[in-house]
């Protein structure tokens, strides 16, 4: 039985997290501020110090394997954008990130008392879409040709989730 | 080379920010004046000026969110 948990990303894991986010296979799906940038341990440190962000290390049976995170936390509108990365592909296919997102939603609607959370996915990124759907996210619309993936402009699919 | 307020403001000017309007206690990061990637560049400027690496554990709002805080954390008396 796989045990998945999340905890605030510690500084000691910034380096590993930076490696994951810099991986071209993952980096191409990230928000534009992360793409085509030199993602380093320092980048993670700066992102983590922003109070609008919350970064969590995903562990599977105690081993760090990915990140789930909130960005753009808006305490006035009580919303945020959720994103996630499975850094270690050896843990793929086990529902690790799906479970991690579920755990993060508890923080979103509990501790942070947000009333809405959103996420976006590049059109065709089926695995990522399934993660959201399994966690109760609802398709909210499409921004056409809104995301550059490997040089091609693709549609961005928008999802949201209420408590 | 020493880290000075002028050096930090010179960096800000290079980003197109009117550095004359940035007071010592103006919030640089939590206000959105600097984004994550320009803050990374600023850390590089600080390291170049001090000759010392800034460890990730010291990258905090307490140390970086204003000119005054940066000088307090990494200025001459702290080198």
| Regions with little confidence, pLDDT below 50 for 5+ residues of chain B | none
How is the main sheet of chain B built? Answer: none
Summing up helix and strand content along with how strands pair, one would put the structural category of chain A as alpha+beta
Q: Any idea what the radius of gyration of chain B is?
A: 11 Å
> In terms of structural class, how would the helical and strand content of chain B be classed?
mainly alpha
Placed side by side, the strands forming the largest sheet of chain A appear as: 1-2-3-4-5-7-6
Question: Secondary structure elements and their pairing?
Answer:
The complex is a heterodimer of chains A (163) and B (79).
Chain A (H helix, E strand, L loop, with lengths): L3 E5 L5 H9 L1 H4 L13 H9 L4 E7 L2 E12 L4 E8 L9 H14 L6 E7 L3 H9 L3 E12 L2 E10 L2
Parallel strand pairs in A: 4-5
Antiparallel strand pairs in A: 1-2, 2-3, 3-4, 5-7, 6-7
Chain B lengths: L4 H10 L21 H15 L10 H4 L2 H8 L5
Describe the structure.
Chain A is of the alpha+beta class and 163 residues long. Chain A is built from 5 helices and 7 strands. The longest helix of chain A is centred in the middle third of the chain and has 14 residues. The termini of chain B are close together. Chain B is globular and about 30 Å long. Chain B is mainly α and 79 residues long. At the A-B interface, helix 3 of A face helix 2 of B.
